## 1
Amino acid sequence: MKVHLKHTAMTYWFSSFLFALILFIASAPLFIDANPIIGGHPKTHHHEFIVQATKVKRLCRTHNRITVNGQFPGPTINVKNGDTLVVKVVNKARYNVTIHWHGIRQMRTGWADGPEFVTQCPIRPGQSYTYRFTIDGQEGTLWWHAHSSWLRATVYGALIIYPREGTSYTFAKPKRESTLLLGEWWNSNPVDVINEARRTGGAPNISDAYTINGQPGDLYNCSSKDTVIVPVALGETILLRVVNSALNQDLFFAVANHKLTVVSADASYTKPITTSVILLGPGQTTDVLIKADQPVGRYYIAARAYNSAQGAPFDNTTTTAILEYKGSPCRTCSGQSLQSPVFPNLPAYNDTATATAFTTSLRSYRKVPVPTEIDEDLFFTVGLGLIPCPRRFRSSRCQGPNGTRFTASMNNHSFVLPSSWSLLQAQQQGIPGVFTTDFPAAPPVKFDYTGNVSRALWNPVPGTKLYKLKYGSRVQIVLQGTSIQTAENHPIHLHGYDFFIVAEGFGNFDANKDTSKFNLVDPPLRNTVGVPVGGWAVIRFAADNPGVWLMHCHLDTHISWGLAMAFLVENGVGKLQSVEPPPADLPIC
C-alpha cells in the first residue's frame, strides 16, 4: 500500500509540474528560445487546426480576426525529413478556408496542396477536411497559410523540417534557434479590404503595420510591451529562421551590428554567405546564423519595405524585435533604466541594387542536377494591366487609373478560378467545361516588354487556361516582367515544385546573349523567385510530380487580379508516377 501511495503522490506531483510548465510556456509566447528535439524514426504527426474568430489587440484596438487554435500567428509544426503530417482542419469561422503547405512538394498528393478551386473546393463554415502528406527530401524552414481570400493575413504559421535521424545540417548545429515570421497588419478586416478593392476596381488599402511574430514592435503605438525578445548569450551562435508571411510586400531584414550568414533558403541548403541585410519576397524563407560577438546589450531586429513599384503607395513603417544579450539590464526590474536598443542600417525603400546583390549571391550548397536538355522552352510575361470600365458599371466601380479597373496577367491571360469544381477534380474526373489546356507557351504578341508598351496590350483576356506537361519533361521558363502600368518585383511561386534559378537580369531577356549568364552548376533551389523590377528570371525543373499546380504572384493583390496560371502535369507510368486517389473527405463545392 505504501508503494502504491508513493506512486500516486509522485504521479500527482509530476502531473502538477507538467501542467504548470505548460501554463508557463503558454503565458510567455514573446520570449523566444526554441530548440526542439525530435528523435526516433519517421513518424506520423497528428494535429487539429480550429479555424475561428479570435479577439486580437494591436495598435491600441481590439479586433476579431480569423486564427488557428486562437493563436496569432498560428502554431508552429516541427517535423523531420521523412515524417508524415495529418492535419484535420475544422472551420468554425464565417468564411470559406483552405490551408496551403507552402513549399511542400506534395509528391502525388496534390489533394493536400490547398489552393481553393485549384486542388480542392474550400472548407465551408461548419465543415472539416484532413490534409495528409509525407515530407520527403526536404529540410529547413517552410510555412503554412490560408489560401482563400486574404485570410492568410492572420492564418499562418511556421513548418520546420529537421534532418533525418542520423544526419545533420550542412553547418554546425547552433545552441539555440528562433523562428521569426514577418507579417502585415490591417486595422480593418483584411477580407473587407480586398472585397472593397474588387468592388471598386482600384488598389486595396495598404497595411497599417508590419509585424514580427504577430507583434508590430517598439515603433508603433501601444506595442512596446509586447515587442518580441530573442535571447542570446555572449559568444554563442544562434539560428534565425526568417519567413516573409506578408501579403503584399518584399521586405529587407537586418540585425543591428550583427552579420547574417545565410545557410538555407526555401528549405534548401546554400553555400554560406555573410551579409548585413537580406531580402525576402512574400512566401520566401531564409535561415541565417548570427554570432553574438558584440558588447552585451540590446539590438534591434528590424524589417521594412523594399518597394520597387515607382509611384505606388506602400506601408513605409518599420517592425522590430530585440536581440537581447544575457546580462543586459533587466526589463522587469525596478530601479534599472533601459537604454534604447541599437538600430540597424536598413537600405532605402527603393534600393534595387542591394536587393539584386543579395538574390544573385545565393548558390546551392553543392553541385546540383540542373536539367541541361530542355523539352519545354517557355516564355511567360508577368505584369499588370488595366481594363476599360464596363458600360454597366458606375464610376464608383472603376477607380483604377483614368477610370479603369486593375487587372494582371501572364502571357496576356488573366487567370479566373472556377467555382463549381476544383481544377484537379475536373481533370481527374474528366469534367468538361471547367478549364482549357491552351495556355500559350509564349506571349501572343511580342513587344518591348520593359519599354513603352502600346495601350492595345494593356487589356488581358480573362480565362481558365492550363499548360499541359508530360510526366518527366524538362522545363525552362523565362519569366519576363513588363512595364504595363508600372514595373515592379514579382515574387512568383510554383506549387508542387522546387526549381533552379539559373539566371536573372534587367531589361528584355535576349536568348542570344543572356544564356551565357546561366549557372548550370550550383544555382539556388527555391519555390518562389523574385522576378526583378523591369527584368527577367529563368527557372528550370523536371516535371516529376503529376497533378494540377498553380503558378502565381505571391503578392496577394496581384493574384486577386489574375496574375497566375496552372500546369497540368500528366501521370507517368504506373502507380508511383500517378496522382493518388482523392481522399474520402475531400470538400465538395
## 2
Amino acid sequence: MNSVRFFGQGLAFRHKKGRVSSLTSAAALGLSFSRLKGSQSFFTTFMEDPELEEFIHYMDSLKNYEKSGIPKGAGTDSDEGFDLGRMRRLMDRLGNPQSRFKAVHIAGSKGKGSTAAFLSNMLRAEGYSVGCYSSPHILSIRERVSVGKLGEPVSAKVLNSFLRKIKDTLDQAIELENGHLTHFEVFTATALALFAQENVDIAVIEAGLGGARDATNIISAPELASSIITTIGEEHLEALGGSLESITMAKSGIIKHGRPVVLGGPFLPHIECILREKASSMGSPVLSASDTGIKMDVKGIDTFDGKPCQSFDIKIQHVELDDVKLSMLGSHQLRNAATATLAALCLRDQGWKMSDGSIRAGLENTSLPGRSQFLSSKDAEDLGLPGATILLDGAHTRESAKALVDTIRMTFPEARLALVVAMASDKDHLGFAREFLSGRELEAVFLTEAKVAGGTSRTTSASFLRDCWIQASKELGISVLLHDGMMEYEEEQLHSIAKDSDRRTVLATEKSLEVCMRTANQILRRRSGNQSSIIVVTGSLHIVSSVLASLHG
C-alpha cells in the first residue's frame, strides 16, 4: 500500500489507493513553521568580473535560446532547423578562422563536456596549445573558452579586447542577417576566431544542440581530425525531432567525409546501426569505445589529492595503464574516459604526438565543477552546514539520474540521502524522479527552483516537480510525507520525523535553496545517527551554479 501524507495549507490529507480523506489540521498536530532566525544568508548570485561588462552587455543583446527555450525542430536537418547558412556567412565575414587549425568535434546527449575535458588535458599534457569550447558554464561565461597550454578559462581582458577587434564585423553581420544571429552563434564564432588568433595547435569543440544544424558544425572535412559521438538519449526531444532515431540523425550530422568518428556508447543496437550506416555512407572509419577488446577493470574507491576517486586499469589497443586515479566518479565517467582515450589514439594514428603518460595525466588531472563534485569540509562550513557531506551533480535526465544513483551506491553504499532538486522545464521530470525513488531509499527530497541561463522562462515550478514526485512515488508504492511551502523545522517536528516508524521519505517544496539545504541537513542528522549521510544537490547545472556562486561570491 502506498500513501502520501500532506502537511501545509492548514490541513493534512492522506492519499490511499487513489482516495483522499481529510484528517486533521497541521496545528492540531503541533506542526508549526518558522523562518531562519539570526542566520546569515550564504546563497547569493555570482557576479561576473566587472571587466566583462562590455562583453556581457553585447552578448545579452542577442537572442538567447538557452534562456528562452529551444524551438521545436530547431536542431533537425529540415526546414524547421536552425539556418546554418547564416553561421557560414558570419564565419566567411570573419575570414573563416576555423580553417586555420585542426579540430575534434564532439556531439552527444551526455558526456560531451567530460570527454572534451579529458581529451583537451591529454593534448595539453603532451605540450600542445589547445582551444577548448564547451557549454553551458557554471559561474562565468569565460568557462566556455580556454586557450593555450594551461586550460584556464579565457580572461575577461582577452575577451573584451577581442570583441572590440571584431565588433564592427559582428555588427555588420547582425544587420545583414536582420538581427537573426543568436547568442550561441556569435559566441561560437568569437571563440573560433580567438583560437585562430592565438594560433592553437588543435581545438576541441563541443556541439551545443544536436549536430547537423548546430552553430559549431561549420568545420569542414579538411580541418576535422576526428568527430566523437558520446551517447544518444532523449534530451531536447522536441527540438531534435521527437524520437531517438531523429536525435541520432541530428547528432550524426557532425560526421564528415573520410574523417574518423569515435563512438562512445553503449548504444541501442538500432541506434548504433544508424550511426554506422551514416559513417559508411561518408567513408568514415569507425572506432568504438564499446568494443569488447577494450578492458576497464575498476579496482575500487580511493583518495587522490584528498578527494574520492575511482581507481581502475585500462587496456585500449596497445595502451595499458594500471591504477589510474579518476576524480570523475561513476561508470559513465569511465566510459567517457575510454572514449577520450580512443580519440587520443585516433590522433596518434594521424601523426600527433600522444604518449601513454600524457593519456594518464589527462585522465587523472581532469575534474569539472558540478559533475559528481564533493564539496570540501571548509565549503560546507562556509555554507553554514559544518560537518555535512555535500555532493553537487548537474544530472538532469533519466539516464544521468541513474548514473548518479549508481555513483553514490559505488562510493557511499550505506549513506543516507537527502536530495535538493531544481530542474529546467524541458526535461523528463517524472523519469528523473522514478530513477531516484527506485534506485535508493531517500530520507528527504526538497523541490525548489533555479533560474536557467539567468532567466525564469525555462524554470520548472517546485509545485509541478512535487506533482511528478508524488506520481512516481505512487507508481512505485513508496510512502512519502509531504510538506508544502515549508520553512525550517521546529525541534518537535524533527523529533517526530526522526521517530517515524514507517521511515517515509519527506517530500517538501520550498523556494529558498538555503532553507532546503539547512533542513535537509537537520533531517539527516536526526535520522542518520552515526551513519554517513549526504546532501545531494541535483536536477540541473543551474542549481549547482547557485550553490557554487555562494562560495565564490
